[in-house]
User: Fold Cytochrome c oxidase subunit 2 from Allosphingosinicella indica.
Amino acid sequence: MNNLLKIFAVAAAFGLTPAAGLAQEALPAQPKQALPAEPKMPAATDAISAQSQANPAQPQDVSGPNAGEAAATPAAEAAPPLVSSNRPVEGIGQPDGRMGLQDQFTPIGEEAAWFHDVILMPVITIISLFVLALMGWVAIRYRRAANPVPSRTTHNTLIEVIWTLVPVIILVVIAVPSIKLLANQYDPPKADLTVKVMGNQWYWTYQYPDNGDFEVVSNMLSEEDAKARGEPRLLGVDERMVVPAGAVVKLIVTSNDVIHAFAVPAFWSKIDAVPGRLNETWFKVDRPGVYYGQCSELCGARHAYMPIAVDVVPPAEFAAWVASKGGTMPGAAPAPTAGETGGAPATVGAAEASEAAPAPTTVSNVAAAGETVDQAATANPRVSE
Ligand SMILES: [Cu+2]
Assistant:
């Protein structure tokens, strides 16, 4: 019996731990104070970091010092600083002050939220109330005043069997869906798109190896810019990670400097970004929209200021966005934009793409196409190899 207990306990603990960790994903309360002026920001050795952090809200600057040299491209000045057709929606993909988990938009998220709501919370609540009632009953019924002569009872076989078996059954009930969820998390379907996510102090870069390996640098918007664009404070970014709706997206997550963690609560996705190591996770979102997350590993002074914004767009819009970045769609050689781009400079190709795209105005990133070249230049050679 003891061995059986141990096996179940270990299995349940193993299965529960990740779920419990993920359950804490609710974004922390955002600090009330305005963005600090940061006179003490350590001298950034990385020119990109220094530049982008100094002016995190200027889309034409985020690509680093190269942007100044490349300012000859008039697109940067003319571009309205829109991000995509997706607008943030209160309560979807971002915290809205309620208790509990955010609404889930991935298969794993739905499964995990069901596990939390239908299995874990009821079990925890029933056990807590039951134990509380037992303790109340013992404290009142068997208090000293009512029992001047205490009972000398020490054993009761039936009760001992019950209080051994019932917890075992509860653990089994929890372990089955828990281990199933764990297995599903680590057994992703075949990926339609791979995005390489890199943490940096203190911003994210997203590389698209399936689409010509272009890179997007994502910096947080300043408070004023976030307000102007209707983005949530401390969550809005200048360049979102754009992915197509309904596609299985594989994330390869790593870091350029210290340990970060890529976390998007609405996707039930949280994974460490460790230098020198590739971690993998996945998500599939059917509903177009923008979903926010934050770095979830203490990574330095501006840890709180490197948010994540994932833009889930219809596949056609994704293709237009890729073209605007100078990238290509796999197996889409006959596409007019890809053909026209040919050997032309990325900016020219992007400009053409924006004209050829069915709905150019919805893909605002098209306008900032000049950045593509600059951003590629910012890729860390060590990782881009
Ligand atoms: Cu970080």
Q: What stands out?
A: Strands lie at 193-200, 203-208, 214-218, 241-244, 248-255, 260-264, 269-273, 279-284, 289-295, 308-313. Residues 157 and 242 are 62 Å apart (CA to CA). The longest strand covers residues 193-200. The two ends are 55 Å apart (CA to CA).
